Amino acid sequence: MHIVVCIKQVPDSAQIRVHPVTNTIMRQGVPSIVNPYDLFSLEEALRLRDELGGTVTVLTMGPPTASESLRKCLTYGSDRAVLLTDRFFAGSDTLATSFALAQAIRKIGETFGAPDIVFAGKQTIDGDTAQVGPGVAKRLDLLQLTYIQKIVACDPEARTLTVERRAEGGTQTLVTRLPCLVTMLEGVNQVRRGSIHDALRAARAEIVTWSAKDAGIEDVTKCGLRGSPTVVKRVFAPAPRSEKAAAVPVSGKAAADADALIDAILARQPSLEADLTHLAAGI
Amino acid sequence: MAEEKFDAIVIGAGMSGNAAAYVMAERGLKVLQLERGEYPGSKNVQGAILYADMLEKIIPDFREDAPLERHLVEQRFWMMSDTAHTGMHYRSDAFNEEKPNRYTIIRSQFDRWFNGKVREKGAIVLTETTVTDLVTGRDGAVIGVRTDRAGGPIYADVVVLAEGVNGLLGTRAGLRDRPKAAQVALAVKEMHFMPRETIEARFNLDGDAGAVIEAAGTISKGMTGMGFVYTNKESLSVGFGCLVSDFAEGDETPYGLLDAFRQHPSIRPLLADAEIKEYAAHLIPEGGYKAIPQLFGDGWVVVGDAAQFNNAIHREGSNLAMTTGRLAAEAIFQLKSRKLPFTKDNLALYKTLVDGSFVMKDLKKYKDMPKLLHTHSSNFFLTYPQLVAKAMEDFVRVDGTPKLDKEKATLRNFARTRSWTGLVGDAFRLARAWR
C-alpha cells in the first residue's frame, strides 16, 4: 500500500487575534500547527499501513517553514514527507491549491509508486472551505469519500475499500474501488505518539522539497494568485447586534398568543406585512 | 531497530540544557537533547533578565538575531510599606552601550531561538519527549535514558541533567534529595500588555532602553519574598515570589500576594489600563551554596536549577544555569578528546571548573544569606521596611516639629520596635553574611 496524506500548516486559531482597525488576522507570533482535521486522516492512514504494510507519504504545499509540520507528521510515524514550495504558489485559493497538490501527487506516484489511497483533512481551521480534498480527487479522477467516520475494511487484493460515511439522517456504508480519496471526520480517532525511534528518524529525516518545476508543473499561471479566481472583496468583523430580543407576553390562549407574536414581528419589520399581503395575493 | 548511542544526552532545553547541548555540539560531539515541552521554552518561566556576558561566552554574536526585549539602563530597589516605598534608583547612560550588559527577555521566545542555535550546531532535539528513567549499567553507572515514548532505551556515554528546579528525574534516581520547602521559592508572574509608548512614558525610557523594579517589604506579609516589575517592549512582567515553606506555614496565597502587590499605590499607576494576557508560576531555587547537591557521578552531571545554582541575592539564575551548562560541556569535551571514560573521578573535572568560576565564588560569599533572611524574615521584610518608611515620612513631612525631636523620635522608634541588641545583631549578621 502507498498512502498519500495531504496536510496543511495553519496558525493555531485558538491563539489568533484580529487587528482592531484593519480586521485582518494578526499572524505574527501565533504558533503554527498541523491542521487538526488532517491528523484524523493521518492516523487512519498510519493504521492502514500498520495493518497492510506499505508506506505513508505526507504532502504539504506551503512556505519553507511548513517543513516543521511535515517533521511533526514524521514523528507520528509517517515514512516520507514532501514539501511543495515555490513563490509561484503564494496566494493560492482552493482551485490553485488543488491543482498544485494534484500535480504533486502525480509526481509522487511517478517517483515513489502510485498511491492506492489519498487522504485529506475534512477542511482546514483557517480556510474552512472543505474544497481542497474534493478538488484534488476531481483533478486526479479519484473516487471520493468525504465525511468518513470509520474505515471498515481495505482489501488490497480485491482493490476495495469499505467505509462508514456520516450522512444526513444516518450512516451510509460504502464500498469503493481503489485508488480513491478519503476525508475523515473529526474526533474519530486520536493521533498516536510516535515511538522514540520515529522521533529520532523524524529529526534526522531529509524532507523532499519540490519547486513547481520539480513537481512537473509547467503552467504556473494555474498556480498562486494568478491561478486563483477567488477574490477577497472585503474583510469585516460582524457588528454587534443593536437590537435585543424582545419578550412576547404569553396568555396561554393559542390564538391570542399567535396574534401577539405576529404583532410583535410586524412592529419590528414594518415592510413584512406588505410583502406577505403581496405574496398572498399571488396565491 | 538499531541501538541508538550518543556521546551525550542532555535532559531539558532551558538555559543550562541549551548551553550544554550547544557547546558540545559545536565541538563535534554527537548530542541528543530531550525536552518534555511542546517546543523549547514552552515550559520555562523566568522574570526574565538575561546577562549578556554569560551568553557571549557561548554565542558571541547573539545580539544579531536573539529575541531581546529591552536593554536595562535603570535599576530600582524599593523597600515597601503598605502605603509607601523608599527607593534607591540607579540609572546610567553608560548602559546605553554598543553591547549592553543586561536585557529583559521573554523565555518562550528566547529559549526557542537558543535551541534553534543548538540544532544548527548539529544536535538532535526531540520535543514532547519526557525522560522517565535513567538507565544504569551493572556497575551502577548511568548509561542512557528511557522516555515516555515507546521503544528505547537510548544510550549515551554521559547524561547531562538539565531538568530544572524540580529535578524529579535525579531525585527519583537517588542522585540527590528533593529540594526542601525552605530551599525553593514559588513565584507567580503576569504579563501586562500595553503600547510601547505608554511603557516608555511611565518608566521614562527612550527607544529600546528598559528599567526594572525590585521590591521587598511588607508586601510579603513578613515572609521571605519579593516582587518585581520588568519592562519588555510591549509588556510588563509583574511577579511575586516567596519561599514555599512560608506559604506552607501561613494563610497567604501566591496570587493573593501578587494581587496585593499590583494594588499597591506605588505600583498600580504603572499598570493602569494594561491587558493581562498570560499567567505563569514557577519554582526558584533559593537554598544557595549550602543546598548544592552532588554535581557529578558515574556517567552523569547535573547543571542549572536542578543543582540549585541560583544567586538569590543578585537574582542571577539563568546565567548560572548557562555557565554551569557550558562548564559541564567543556569538561565532557575534554574527557572525550582525551579518550577518558566518564567515571565519577574523571567527571570531577566539572566540579573543579565550577569551583574556579564566579558561580561557586558568588554562592559561597552569600552562603549564610538564605538562612539569615529566612529565620529573621519578619524583621527584614516587615519591621525594617515600616521603620524606614516612617523615618522617611518624618524626614520629608514638614509640620513644625523641631528636626532634632524628629530624629530622636526616629531612633526611639527603631529601638523600641526592634531593641538595640536586635538591631546590632541584625546588622552584624547581615554584614557577616554579605562579606
Overview of this protein structure:
- Chain A has 283 residues and is of the alpha/beta class.
- Chain A folds into two domains: 2-222, Rossmann fold, CATH 3.40.50.620; 241-283.
- Chain A is 32% helix and 24% strand.
- Chain A has helices at residues 36-52, 67-75, 94-112, 132-140, 196-204, 254-268, 270-282, and strands at residues 2-6, 9-11, 17-18, 25-26, 32-34, 55-61, 80-84, 117-121, 143-155, 160-167, 170-177, 180-184, 208-210.
- Chain A has a nine-stranded mixed sheet, with helices on both faces.
- In chain A, α2 (67-75) links the parallel β6 and β7.
- In chain A, α3 packs across α4 (132-140) and α6 packs across α7 (270-282).
- The mean pLDDT of chain A is 91.
- Chain B has helices at residues 15-26, 52-56, 107-120, 168-172, 196-202, 244-249, 254-263, 268-271, 318-337, 344-355, 358-365, 369-375, 377-396, 403-418, 420-434; strands spanning 5-11, 31-34, 49-51, 71-80, 85-91, 102-104, 124-126, 131-136, 142-147, 154-161, 184-193, 209-217, 225-231, 235-243, 275-285, 296-297, 300-302.
- Chain B is globular, with a radius of gyration of 23 Å.
- Chain B has three domains: 5-69 and 105-179 and 288-365, FAD/NAD(P)-binding domain (3-Layer(bba) Sandwich), CATH 3.50.50; 182-285, D-Amino Acid Oxidase, Chain A, domain 2 (2-Layer Sandwich), CATH 3.30.9.90; 369-434, no CATH class.
- Chain B contains 15 helices and 17 strands.
- Chain B is α/β, with parallel strands linked by helices.
- In chain B, α1 (15-26) runs parallel beside α3 (107-120).
- In chain B, a hairpin with a 2-residue loop joins β16 and β17 (300-302).
- The longest helix of chain B has 20 residues, at 318-337.
- The model of chain B has no long low-confidence stretch (mean pLDDT 90).
- Chain A binds chain B through residues 31, 75, 193-200, 203-204, and chain B through 1, 4, 32, 39, 124-126, 128-129, 147-152, 154.
